[in-house]
Amino acid sequence: MSFSIPQTLVEAETLAAGGGVKFVSGGTDLIVRRSLGLDASPDLIDLSQIPELHGITAEGGVVSIGATTTLAELATNRIVEGMFPVLVEAALSIASPPIRNSATVAGNLLCENRCIYYDQSEFWQAAAGGCLKCGSNVCVATGSAKHCYSVFISDLAPVLLALDAQVEVLSDGALDLLPIESLYSGDGLNSLTISKQTILTRIVIPEPAEEREARVFFQKHRERASIDFTNLTVAIRQTADGVTVAASGIGPAPAILRAVTTDDPQTIASALLKKSRIIDNLTYRRTYRKEMLLETVRRGLEFLAEGHP
Predict the structure, then answer these.
(1) Residues whose CB falls within 8 Å of the CB of residue 135, separated by 6 or more in sequence, listed in order
(2) What is the CATH number of the domain that holds 49?
(3) Which of 63, 189, 244, 246 could be stapled to 158 by a disulfide with Cβ–Cβ 3.0 to 4.6 Å?
């Protein structure tokens, strides 16, 4: 295995050109997965020393967040605190303080999907008979399905989706701005649409034109208030034009729904549930996660309708 630490984006792209690489910055997810035998990429490229990928700025009507900005830095940044306090709330809901000091914004957006039948040691998987992500021909969680339902568990993604954020990516020497939802394929086996040689460089969020546009409800459900990955994360943004509801923990990709504010909360919640692909493959049971999705969306819409910040 080789480990490289490029100092520029050009150097990083050159190192990645041969394939068989995995980009890393904080490494809080990747290194654990490698220790379990879930990742065997022969070459790791550390992006943490590239200045262009770090920091938070507000200019030209947008807030730009560098890909390698840590979750701890995101949670304490004055620009973010002033314009998007919900991002602070989401960042502080992730893992624990030591992990947030290393984990990055891009790492959270691009983290590997999870499943209680997959995120185990090689010994455990061998005893269980493997799964689709391990090269078997059956989904252990469903017993027969030929599709992988591993779960997208980013907590920043629903908030950024609700805020109409975009991501800037570098591929083949060219920079492109993409909607965040375009990153995710909905296929549990290959959850990302971008290639392994593509570098996510920054996240771009439009500055709110008025205070009302920055109002976002956020709630995360997991067994403990720290460390545990989400079983359901919901973000809801209300503007004068309508509401945007986004969720993770409900299928192989995040779900997003846009509706008018006059729609009944239960109708909106039911419409989002129809976009989910929830099965019994996280710590909370399928039926409970469905009930909590409906209840959380309903409460969030009512909370915002009452005029809470």
Answers:
(1) none
(2) 3.30.465.10
(3) 246
| CA distance linking residue 176 with residue 194, whole number of Å | 12
* Domain span at 184: 2-114+150-305
- Count the alpha carbons within 13 Å of 12 in the hemisphere toward its beta carbon: 28
Task: Please check whether residue 143 lies inside any domain of the structure.
Answer: no
Which amino acid is it at 31? I
Over residues 253-278, the mean pLDDT reads 94
Residue 132 lies in a domain: no
Query: What is the spatial distance between Cα 144 and Cα 114, in angstroms, rounded to a whole number?
Result: 19
Helix (H) or strand (E) run with residue 256 in it? strand 255-259
Residue 210: the pLDDT is: 73
pTM of the model as a whole:
0.95
Within 8 A by CB and 6+ apart from 208, the residues are 83, 84, 214
Q: Is residue 267 part of a domain?
A: yes
- Assigned token pair, 190: 């290959």
Residue 214 pLDDT class (50, 70, 90 cuts): low
